[in-house]
Amino acid sequence: MNKLRKDIDEAFRCYYKPLCLYTMHYLHDIDLAEDVVQDCFAELWERMNTKKVSSVRSYLYMMVKNRCLDTLKKDNLIDTNTSPSDLADIIPDEEAEERSLIEARLWTAIDTLPEKCREVFLLSKRDGLKYKEIADKLNISAKTVENQVAKAIKILKEGAIKIYTFFFG
After folding, report:
1. How many CA atoms are closer than 13 Å to the CA of 22, on its beta-carbon side?
2. What is each CA distance from 115 to 118, 125, 155, 160, in whole angstroms?
3. pTM for this entry
4. Distance between CA 115 and CA 87 in Å, rounded?
5. What are the tens digits of pLDDT across the range 81-94?
């Protein structure tokens, strides 16, 4: 039982954020996406108690995709006769999985930025606010906003270079 718990904890740490982002490609609702992914981890826990799962990653992505389709059908957002293969042209699985992993890495990197730098960066890049709007909102100068955004981009680029060098050195 201890090994099973360790395996589930490891899978959760590795795949929770990418699976939530993958789910967002289907559902476009973060709360619903998190619910789906959490339900799938609970189901994985139950299934791993009774049978061996050869590839936890593949199994989770398959479960999440099927649960997304069930949710969309239940909410009448897609035809109830739609099968997973019908969506292959709309959301190619491999592309969506790869994109979700890249997005998860990016968000992890953003989460490591200093607090004020992260806040300014997200207001600019995620929320699309202009430097003057951010400056007014945070009671700082537009130049400080510009410097914080530049600092964030520099940190993120340096992190990307380190990862690239590590893998392709």
Report:
1. 28
2. 5, 15, 13, 20
3. 0.55
4. 39
5. 555 555 544 555 66
